[in-house]
């Protein structure tokens, strides 16, 4: 297992020879003088997946929003493929955000919701892309149902489809498995695996260590706005019980 220090990089880094897809330098975000994110730097290549762990209030969601250009940092910069993250409309085309807020129109059908998102993102064949992503999330059989009639888990699948329909380069996921059954969770894992294989960069926030580590190429533990541990995850995976012990020591026993 290679540590970030062994890569010679600041923060999380992968060994891919291509230029970095996502970089953040010394990100700070304060709310009313309190720093929710307090000096985070990272570098991720295309196809990398960072699993981000930490206790409630550690700053994970705030960091995700900074990385996606959805929130302005107090200081520091975020770059996607070397470019400072662009304005809001442009950002939406490059970024897919999956959070626990469904962000769907309840009166519109599943298909209408996803197709509308595709059209807003400038997808050329929005109908095809919609059918493809609904098939991938295993919710095509409910395509004509108004979203308000769906269960929470099915709404989550539609919400994920909406976020992925335009094939984003950067996918930010905030507890995406919450509320999904086994089929939904597997469909999400498959969809994320396909995105990674196509070169998308993923940042996944979860409280479930084994779920997060299953997809991860890198992991980080965040506490009080800072990374207190970072590591590369080898292709053969990671010792989950060992990682859980380390997490407990850092976060619950205050050994950071
Ligand atoms: N818009 C805001 N205004 C004021 N404070 C905020 C705002 N957003 C986040 N915070 C504060 O920033 C800190 C980090 O919040 P954040 O939501 O990023 O944590 P988190 O690690 O995602 O937590 P959780 O695991 O509970 O989702 C918290 O103290 C929170 O109250």
From TrEMBL:
It comes from the Bacteria. PROSITE patterns: ABC_TRANSPORTER_2. The keyword ATP-binding applies. One of its GO terms (molecular function) is ATP binding. Residues 22-249 form the ABC transporter domain. The keyword Oxidoreductase does not apply. It holds the Pfam family ABC_tran. Signal peptide: none annotated. Keywords: ATP-binding, Nucleotide-binding, Transport. Belongs to the ABC transporter superfamily. This is ABC transporter ATP-binding protein. It comes from Gemmatimonas groenlandica.
């Amino acid at each position: 297992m290679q540590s970030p220090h062994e890569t010679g990089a600041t923060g999380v880094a992968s060994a891919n020879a291509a230029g970095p897809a996502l970089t953040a330098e010394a990100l700070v975000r304060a709310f009313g003088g309190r720093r929710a994110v307090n000096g985070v730097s990272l570098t991720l290549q295309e196809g990398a997946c960072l699993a981000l762990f930490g206790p409630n209030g550690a700053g994970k969601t705030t960091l995700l929003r900074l990385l996606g250009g959805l929130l302005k940092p107090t200081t520091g910069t975020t770059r996607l493929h070397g470019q400072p993250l662009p304005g809001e409309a442009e950002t939406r085309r490059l970024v897919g955000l999956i959070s626990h807020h469904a962000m769907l129109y309840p009166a519109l059908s599943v298909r209408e919701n996803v197709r509308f998102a595709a059209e807003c993102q400038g997808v050329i064949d929005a109908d095809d892309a919609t059918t493809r992503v609904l098939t991938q999330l295993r919710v095509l059989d409910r395509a004509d149902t108004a979203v308000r009639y769906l269960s929470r888990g099915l709404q989550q699948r539609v919400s994920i489809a909406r976020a992925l329909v335009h094939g984003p380069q950067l996918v930010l996921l905030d507890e995406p498995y919450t509320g999904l059954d086994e089929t939904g969770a597997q469909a999400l894992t498959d969809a994320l695996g396909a995105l990674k294989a196509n070169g998308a960069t993923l940042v996944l926030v979860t409280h479930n260590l084994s779920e997060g580590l299953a997809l991860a190429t890198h992991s980080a533990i965040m506490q009080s706005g800072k990374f207190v541990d970072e590591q590369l995850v080898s292709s053969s995976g990671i010792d989950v019980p060992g990682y859980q012990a380390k997490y407990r020591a850092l976060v619950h026993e205050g050994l950071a």
